[in-house]
């Protein structure tokens, strides 16, 4: 993969300028948990420019949510940021693209009326108020339905007899909602759809028998609710999913510069774009994405032998079966500590860029004892279904004989970010699932050589990081958009292998024996200490 052209590459800058001016590019936009990001690439997937906008979810009436006003303000500012980057780099502003795609956080609940208006505030994947619904559906289907899945939110609303159901006409995800406003089409990529309702891997569509079971389940309470009429149409990677309408162009770019008519690929979830961005879409490959949440996606050679509450069964953007280990809590707590240490540095008169502070602290983790020196860290800002916690409280715990050093503290924070993931990966290991390599991506891996070996110890498998690791989900979405022009000739895996990642620079780290033993000791302490976390939730429930 080529890097973004710079002024030192005049020929490449000239070629990039022409591609942008003529619309021979693909744009990917991803609405992540803390940032909306855009990636502009040429039609071979090489990055050209980027844009971003910071945002944050809110905890309103005990629900994690984002307002739709913030969605559109954020998208417009992200697009403006991208346009400014292209002007700065190439002296040209894009007015059209060869293809466009939108991705976002998976799961959650966006319930719309017949006019496409939101009926209740957007309920994100972080909400864990669907315990009864998820348990009943999992038993009914013989298929694990996690608390964050859209169908669990819908059924919980039925159980609670929520009045908005009378006006419910469609259900979608955040990516599906944005795509619908840009194109007028109620569709979803199969990977994102697989986090709404179970997918039949043979048909690449919703499981028909489970659709019938659901309708029968709710028939007495909601006789007019027919699930197939509510869910988006499912499309696979390479299928065109509509065109940018004039109204959609104005929503994305109020300046009026962006022209309508751009073809869009199916909207996808952040899990799918992470798989594409790491070239992990074929069996025996997998990827780990580290952000506000952390999840591993492992492409399966065969179905699992039985149902596990720790594992979701979802799909790649092409519809192939994937086991997903999803942890609600990722690197946010680690980032919060980095911010505190940064403030301390400023108070001492030694200011530093946030990335520099974060990198310095991560590097300190390598000097820590292999087991973290007896410390414990829980990164639970929200509930964590894998460990059975409906709510979370970030904690650092030490005993009188713990070795409380900065190095041990930071190693424990990194271990705490990976611990719940490790528990889920051990379930896959017990199922006999084998991995050749696990690819990692996300901001944590911008600091070379630190998180990678510690993650290898946590998952007990080789971990690879490519030079493109920090490009992340928006780049993966841009690749899916660019794939529209190649899908007639190449399957997705071949396209990525031969057109995008051929010759890419990848560093692979094998698990270190001392780190393996140290993390295993830490994880035993972590599991035993979950009682402390439960007690903290109970003791501070009123304050929450």
Automatic annotation (TrEMBL):
<dbReference type="InterPro" id="IPR018484">
    <property type="entry name" value="FGGY_N"/>
</dbReference>
<dbReference type="GO" id="GO:0016301">
    <property type="term" value="F:kinase activity"/>
</dbReference>
<dbReference type="Pfam" id="PF02782">
    <property type="entry name" value="FGGY_C"/>
</dbReference>
<dbReference type="InterPro" id="IPR018485">
    <property type="entry name" value="FGGY_C"/>
</dbReference>
<comment type="similarity">
    <text>Belongs to the FGGY kinase family.</text>
</comment>
<keyword id="KW-0119">Carbohydrate metabolism</keyword>
<dbReference type="InterPro" id="IPR050406">
    <property type="entry name" value="FGGY_Carb_Kinase"/>
</dbReference>
<feature type="domain" description="Carbohydrate kinase FGGY C-terminal">
    <location>
        <begin position="287"/>
        <end position="483"/>
    </location>
</feature>
<keyword id="KW-0859">Xylose metabolism</keyword>
<dbReference type="GO" id="GO:0042732">
    <property type="term" value="P:D-xylose metabolic process"/>
</dbReference>
<keyword id="KW-0808">Transferase</keyword>
<protein>
    <submittedName>
        <fullName>ATPase</fullName>
    </submittedName>
</protein>
<dbReference type="InterPro" id="IPR043129">
    <property type="entry name" value="ATPase_NBD"/>
</dbReference>
<feature type="domain" description="Carbohydrate kinase FGGY N-terminal">
    <location>
        <begin position="26"/>
        <end position="252"/>
    </location>
</feature>
<dbReference type="Pfam" id="PF00370">
    <property type="entry name" value="FGGY_N"/>
</dbReference>
<keyword id="KW-0418">Kinase</keyword>
